[in-house]
Amino acid sequence: MASLKNIKLKILSYKKTGTVTHAMEAVSAVKMRKGQERALSGRAYAAAGLSVLQRLSGTADVARHPLMRDVRPTRSNIKTCIVVVTSDKGLAGSLNSGIIRKVEAEIMRLNLNQDTIVMIAIGRRGGDYFANRGYDVREKHENISDGVSETEMRMVTNKVIAWHTSGEIGACIIIYQNFISTFEQQPTARQIVPITPKVVSEMVAGIRPARGRYAPKPDEITSHQVTAYTIEPDADTVLAFLLPRLLNVAIFHAVLESKASEHSARMVAMKSATDKAKEMSEDLTRTFNKVRQAAITREVSEITSGIESMK
Amino acid sequence: MAEQQTFHLVIASVGETRFDGDVYSATVPGSEGQFTVLAHHEPIVTTLTSGIITVKTKDGEKKFSIDNGVVECSQNRTVVLL
To answer: Record keywords: DNA damage included (chain A) (predicted)?
Structure first.
């Protein structure tokens, strides 16, 4: 049986691990709340942009804008851009592996291969994984802070638009962890180019969690009726302004969702680690007491038998 | 003078909502020239150029400087996207 000293050391080390994971849990909890609040900040913009787009789509020439046109059926050698949003660090349960599995599933579903994919990685985990497997990871963005601003995402948006304009890519999908609740995140793939009104309405619907404090009020989502608009100077100019911004909102929002998901997943992972550490140290304390009691009993019986023999 | 009518105005950029409330009028720098939106303005969508949005509320006047944007008026609700 292990010596008393060894057991004691082990108990101590479990307790220390528990303290660390408990602290990480608390930090993640705070970050998660902040992340959730931020994830909502883009909503007003997206909802308003959507209503403009919906009403503009009543006019005939709306599909003429390149970002709204689906060119994939007409060209066979066109590539697809995949934006993979993961975290930089691990210790967050199955968060990143979920994303990677989803990406691979999407690649299968869309019938793509390494030659027809360009990737943009936001977050180190996904970037490293796909770069190591020979994918064309064009851009890697790491160390994105929790307080990421929308302007930082413009780099990504501009790249996507540039590739699309040059005709290299025909579509762009973004894959990220959608925040559903503290205990539930869902790897989500969303098409962001070409932008269709359907894409935007999915985006607005998905911008808030379905349940809980931030759930939408029923009357907020329904958009009002299409009325005849005066459009100045013309629809093309308005779309040229609006579409890149909506694209940027989509990417920005995916990053915020991922952040909220990352912190909640980490919080849950750290909570179970803390619980496990506590359980282990309790078990070991019991073993420790048993060993100590056995030693005392042995000593007592040795002493009494010594006394007996001297009589 | 009769009570001046108000309409709902939202000025939002991607990261934050800069104004959200009821106003009497909003003067915006449209790309085709500056114009003022009053309650029940006809439905219009237009782009904005750099300039200053002047908003009149019952608490006084507010100014927001902008670089560009889109304004949308419909059904007594006006949204400015920056």
So the answer is: no
